[in-house]
Amino acid sequence: MAVKSEMEFTPELYPQFPSTLPGYDFPIASLETISLKKLQQDNETTEQHRLLEACKSQGFFYLDLTGCNAGQTIFRGAHQVAQIAEKAFKLSEQEKLKYVYQAGDLFGYKRIGLTKVDENSTPDTAEFFSISKDVICKTSGCSDALAVPYPEEIISAAPVLAEYMHTAHSVGLRILKILFEHLGVPGSAEAIASRHAFDEVAGDHVRMIRGPARRDAALPEIQTPAHTDFGSVTVLMNWLGGLQMWSEGSSSAAREAVPGKGAEEGKWLWVRPQANCAIINLGDAAGKFSNGVLQSGRHRVVPAPGEQGLWPRYSVVYFVRPNDECVLRTLEGSGIPARRDRGGEGAGDEDEDEEVTAKQWIFRQAERLRNGKR
Ligand SMILES: O=C(O)CCC(=O)C(=O)O
Ligand SMILES: [Fe+2]
């Protein structure tokens, strides 16, 4: 096969996200746009309330990155990271497999097909490099910084990745701090910072993703199967459509996975990429800390719709996750129901009742996802 010399991550050439898809039902998610600049200002309470409502209802929103330094770092940094990703994904299969995930690993190269998208073991079509914050930033908790090797294309870009990780992490923490403050958690800044200390070992990482161009207009062809993110908050940059969110929040999402139990109660909505915006979604840990008040929106990735689907799809994700040893226990706050007040919901569900550390939770969920269980 001829080696491609041209770049394939070329956002300036991508066609517009379509508004209709003739012959297909094409529902598009309607998400709030929240300004990062305003979230950084303590007196912008209206924006803070909009944030809280978006996270209680959908668990997904657009974060407008304009007008502030952190936003610009994420905007420009994500472009750079995607360019680094392209170089890394263009390495030979043999080279990439040197960095492949081993059983129980969270970081490294995830080859195409490792994850099963359904009970029939249909393989996924996306490849990832998952790059640990602790390794790249050599955090004090990371004693053996060389334990997870990455290709030279990634290692040589460590300064770009480190700046991106620092900035995305602090944006995630700002969002969490505001949310838990408005849920009445006393000292929410400290409550959040101590559970997500940048310098401590955690599952925090940058994930570079490449999904192939669409093969067939009609097939759903799953690049990444339905899931909720395992951590607290996710900062997602993508340039082509293909991300879909489930129309109902996480509480009803669980039912959809069980045949006959309300599968008809929702549908997949396309999330349109928005210029100058990141897409933010909450993960399971935010749901656990808030006892289900905050939603971890369920989502999946398919090839981009229409003409956009002619391009391979890149995305750059930063996952803010609680520190490994943090117990995923409900925080106390006036806006958070205490566990005993939750009634019967979740009763008998081992994951709901048991207190687990973030590390245990993430490993367990990652394993389930790879094996096609949701
Ligand atoms: O590629 C995307 O747009 C989303 C990726 C995603 O959901 C994930 O990696 O958890
Ligand atoms: Fe995700």
From TrEMBL:
| Region (Disordered) location | 337-357
Gene3D superfamilies listed in its UniProt record: B-lactam Antibiotic, Isopenicillin N Synthase, Chain
Q: Which species is this UniProt entry from?
A: Dissoconium aciculare CBS 342.82
Example GO BP: small molecule biosynthetic process
Q: Which InterPro entries match?
A: DIOX_N, IPNS-like_FE2OG_OXY, IPNS-like_sf, Iron_ascorbate_oxido_reductase, Oxoglu/Fe-dep_dioxygenase_dom
Please report which protein family the annotation says this sequence is part of: Belongs to the iron/ascorbate-dependent oxidoreductase family.
Instruction: Give the Gene Ontology MF terms in alphabetical order.
Output: metal ion binding; oxidoreductase activity
Q: Which PANTHER family match?
A: 2-OXOGLUTARATE (2OG) AND FE(II)-DEPENDENT OXYGENASE SUPERFAMILY PROTEIN-RELATED
**Sorted alphabetically, which keywords does the UniProt record give?**
Iron, Metal-binding, Oxidoreductase
What are the residue boundaries of the Fe2OG dioxygenase domain, all occurrences included?
202-322
Q: What is the name of this protein?
A: Clavaminate synthase-like protein
